[in-house]
Amino acid sequence: MTGSSRRYELHPDRLFPADPASRSIARGLYERVRELPIVSPHGHVDPGMLAGDEPFRDPASLFVTPDHYVTRLLHAHGVDLAELGVGQGELDEKAARLAWRRLCEHWAEFRGTPIRYWLEVELAEIFGVNRRLDAATADATFDEIAAKLAGPAFRPRALYRRFGIDVLATTDDPCDDLSAHAALRDDPSWRGRVVPTFRPDAYLEPSAPAWRERIDVLGRVADVDTGTYDGYVAALEKRRRYFIDHGATATDHSHLDLGTEPLVAREAYRIYAAALTGTATQDECTAFRRHMLAQMARMSCDDGLAMALHPGIVRNHHGPTFERFGPDTGHDIPARLEVTRALRPLLERYGTHPGFHLVLFTVDESLYSREIAPLAGFYPSVYVGAPWWFLDTPDAIRRFRLAVTDSAGFGKTAGFVDDTRAFCSIPARHDLSRRVDAGVLAQYVAEHRLDEDEATEVIVQLTDRQPRRAFKLEEES
Amino acid sequence: MTGSSRRYELHPDRLFPADPASRSIARGLYERVRELPIVSPHGHVDPGMLAGDEPFRDPASLFVTPDHYVTRLLHAHGVDLAELGVGQGELDEKAARLAWRRLCEHWAEFRGTPIRYWLEVELAEIFGVNRRLDAATADATFDEIAAKLAGPAFRPRALYRRFGIDVLATTDDPCDDLSAHAALRDDPSWRGRVVPTFRPDAYLEPSAPAWRERIDVLGRVADVDTGTYDGYVAALEKRRRYFIDHGATATDHSHLDLGTEPLVAREAYRIYAAALTGTATQDECTAFRRHMLAQMARMSCDDGLAMALHPGIVRNHHGPTFERFGPDTGHDIPARLEVTRALRPLLERYGTHPGFHLVLFTVDESLYSREIAPLAGFYPSVYVGAPWWFLDTPDAIRRFRLAVTDSAGFGKTAGFVDDTRAFCSIPARHDLSRRVDAGVLAQYVAEHRLDEDEATEVIVQLTDRQPRRAFKLEEES
Amino acid sequence: MTGSSRRYELHPDRLFPADPASRSIARGLYERVRELPIVSPHGHVDPGMLAGDEPFRDPASLFVTPDHYVTRLLHAHGVDLAELGVGQGELDEKAARLAWRRLCEHWAEFRGTPIRYWLEVELAEIFGVNRRLDAATADATFDEIAAKLAGPAFRPRALYRRFGIDVLATTDDPCDDLSAHAALRDDPSWRGRVVPTFRPDAYLEPSAPAWRERIDVLGRVADVDTGTYDGYVAALEKRRRYFIDHGATATDHSHLDLGTEPLVAREAYRIYAAALTGTATQDECTAFRRHMLAQMARMSCDDGLAMALHPGIVRNHHGPTFERFGPDTGHDIPARLEVTRALRPLLERYGTHPGFHLVLFTVDESLYSREIAPLAGFYPSVYVGAPWWFLDTPDAIRRFRLAVTDSAGFGKTAGFVDDTRAFCSIPARHDLSRRVDAGVLAQYVAEHRLDEDEATEVIVQLTDRQPRRAFKLEEES
């Protein structure tokens, strides 16, 4: 192992405000929540990974290839996604070493980004690697991490325990049999809690690729004839119940806009029938999807699943990359979003329904103070979703708190979501959020806007109670 | 009186920056304006309250029921507006105690909000109540405040004097006879200044509820036949003169958008006639309202009334609540707004007219640096309105100053507006604004962007000169 | 010379954070780049000024009349542009003194603005005038500056050397013969580097004033028949090559929107032919311009010119002022902009082309975290342009860094551009940017998000490497 590269220590005060008085308060607040279990109500971890508990293959498969945060910035600096192993299935050692090397070579380009922050914390805290990555030591760090990955302490279940995860929600296709969730639940040696989330996007939008085929599968899996609109709705309701039976507490939805205008029954029937025969226009498909989003709220009022909305993303922006490497390869780009008018039809119908929870995320920061916080400050159902995707970063989380607290307080926010495919980044991401919240609350205390005893209660509330409450993840009976 | 609940002191340095050097500068700047009289150029206090000078009824009527800032956040936490006395007229003691209790029970939910900040300051500074509200002491604090309200020192006029209000503008219907304003003006024992503001929204938008009936009343009150467009315009002009005769210096307008495209005369005649017979389309009604907003600017050039625009709010977002409780019940939600193009027709015609003042408010923060400050940085008529409604808070005011000063300086901003129905919150709101401005200016001084003697002049200017200047509230001769 | 007005010293710590620990770090970072040469990849200096090297005429011609930042804020405070010499060609001494006096009289209105900051630095550092401007000393400072301007040390070339400018890009009409650039290049006594920038806006938009005449001139200058679309394209390509031969490394484009949808060839031919005969509709002209913007990207892929986009400005907002004083007179106002969808056609075609550089500016701050940084964080071609025009100020630059670094890091930003017509403001503007970047990076270091050795590398990178890289201004061979 060469000793040429720069070593670092994770500073205990990292991310706290620079002002000494505020920093001291932040330290105390953070200390209160540092060791609290992780509540992860939204993410993209594969439940089969925990059910199977196989060792992770290599450092690249763990840190580079599947993480589009990492690959997109390397691509932005001219690295071909193929060199990072994207879209190639399991990598052999040579390919894995190459992908890892590309990351190490471009380490300086990650300066100042949360990606670098997370990776540094993961490497230091989980793997004891606390040397800056660089080209000269790429193979050495690869070997060092790979050696650890082979040991039992680095298998998924061991890490789950070590990370202190209390509950982890996955994101799942409505037709998924949830066998991995069931296997975990039925395994007496497993003490964790992994719950599925009902994610029906591709079934609600008739113009989505392979919608017709999905509808057939839905019919088969639900054992309901989806040849009619009524059957389609019944099948969705049945699959929601199946998810609930497997521990689900929420649905998740990500469409380009938040339209929720319902159709009259006759129109819904007509468009559904046209969609089945492939003759519905794009406008009709969009109108149908908006109708179905309102229907999802109606179903949530009936069956109690919380409803999370992650809208406003133009998916697969670069066609050629999508064709070559598939989806989730770093070019999903946010677009401007409108909430106040778009959600009105849904909120007029279901916004004050007892027990209905609507968690509203955005990657358009201008919405925080203008639309989302005011809505959450009136509608009992509406929770402000955490800063997400491009915004789950120190500065964006600060801006978020300072933008929404005025109108929505702390009690109508939904806690942190890691939203990650990168399993090892979960503790680093939650810790970042706790540190930044501690810093924001320290500012409130230092400016005499909140007493310290109240701020202490608030940081526990933000870390633990709010995500459980918004996503209905209260302790299992 | 129980002593179980937590007592607090209002910290003299509250809202100042945490950094000691900046804080020290902020203290000095604030001290310069702490005692300056209050100039309140826009708000919703009932002038009859001051004319009649009756004691306030009870703590709920004073602090809870009429204040949609308070009721909306309680509603967001599941409290029925009926329990808060909304829409029920005068409350009996039982109902008033219940409303107050609901506030006390949910006090923790107001943490970090300006609503809590204002109420704490009001309770401590006006009523000497400096214990945190909670369920256990709800009746005791109710009684304590109620006892004080019965005394002469807590009547509206006594409070007006104690608050140090120099001038207070109300918001009034064009057909209002302004008798309360006249009564105050003619009362030799009254030393204050309460001026009306001409708010014609409902008369300019033919699709507004009861527009036709209002137009008839307008004709009667103005003694002009409003059966023709020319008569309608003449009636509005006459009522503006009536307002001016009663001390008005400004008009106020709040439509969803800022369109100002004028109609050719023939079109204005035609649509007006159609509106009278109820046959104008929604598009025609909107076009007519935009035309009339430009007409209001033209009238301001003629009669000298400043023109304030508070656009971009979707009113009564939740239909069922509106039907049950009426307007102003906490679900007016901001929407995205466009200014540059919308105001162009108006500004091309009147933007450089000598003496014309256009005060431009927004609840869409993205407009500050992009559209409003650049407009105010060129057009002599345009003043940047203060952060308003969801934005009259410590963090939003800071963001406002740091967003508009670059392009518009301090001298094209319009000072603070409290915009409140909550009479007792007026001094707390103005004090908050002065503290935050002191903090922002302290940052400029600490970063050597402004000398301290200039910052001292600026804070006086922001507190006193700018609102008087923008709203033409110069000392009466 | 009166001594009545207030003297000031430029504080060595100006613009650094107030917190002592952060300030100390900022000082060190700034010191590293304080004396680095200026790389100015985008601006509006007249190259003839440097070629001719005539003395500046007077203080008003240097600081007031041509600088729409200055004149617009004076106009906003009621000063007639005519009194500032706008649109009047060369001013006689009386007119120049009046313009200067108006600035001095209104000096207090510039408090807190970057305009005042730049002017103070320029007056103190270049002219040794370190007294606040005011009416009483207006003539004295005019004389003091005028006397210096007469001397050889204040001629343009001497100032260019004194300012430490390494390379200065101008903005030029495609039909310009670039004789000033050639004269400089061929002058053995000239050691600077002044490169032209190809700015074809008026040639791409058939509805722009005098488009038809321009196309004829283009044909003559390029010696290509522009009577056909193919000829028009060839003429543009030929002029780009002419610019490259004269040192150009970039093109620059400023349209209202960023549409880039290409036309099929037949449509392009048809609309071009219609435009030549004046029969193209506005929609066709817009579609053609969007097509041509994509064509410009295609040409950049072919000839290697970097492509800079400065969109989203409504030009000449106030018609009467435009008619009286012409363009660039302070009422170009930003408008909301959309990037993600508008640029998609261009980026799908050319976004990953090797060597293609697209520098994306905005005056709509909401785009930074939502659209521009995510695009730059994936597409190798996309660079985030510096905060520009209304945003090249201490607070906006801070907001910019904190909004884009999360998604794009430092290495996909394009460095600072001064974008100025005010030659003497160049060093003050670049110094401001270096100071603010030092402050932001100091915050990263103080919060333990970046080590100090890395921050030191980053500030050099932001100051020198990034603008050279994005605009292809690498050292000449």
TrEMBL record, chains A, B, C:
<keyword id="KW-0413">Isomerase</keyword>
<dbReference type="InterPro" id="IPR032466">
    <property type="entry name" value="Metal_Hydrolase"/>
</dbReference>
<dbReference type="InterPro" id="IPR003766">
    <property type="entry name" value="Uronate_isomerase"/>
</dbReference>
<dbReference type="GO" id="GO:0008880">
    <property type="term" value="F:glucuronate isomerase activity"/>
</dbReference>
<dbReference type="GO" id="GO:0019698">
    <property type="term" value="P:D-galacturonate catabolic process"/>
</dbReference>
<protein>
    <recommendedName>
        <fullName>Uronate isomerase</fullName>
        <ecNumber>5.3.1.12</ecNumber>
    </recommendedName>
</protein>
<dbReference type="GO" id="GO:0042840">
    <property type="term" value="P:D-glucuronate catabolic process"/>
</dbReference>
<dbReference type="Pfam" id="PF02614">
    <property type="entry name" value="UxaC"/>
</dbReference>
<comment type="pathway">
    <text>Carbohydrate metabolism; pentose and glucuronate interconversion.</text>
</comment>
<comment type="similarity">
    <text>Belongs to the metallo-dependent hydrolases superfamily. Uronate isomerase family.</text>
</comment>
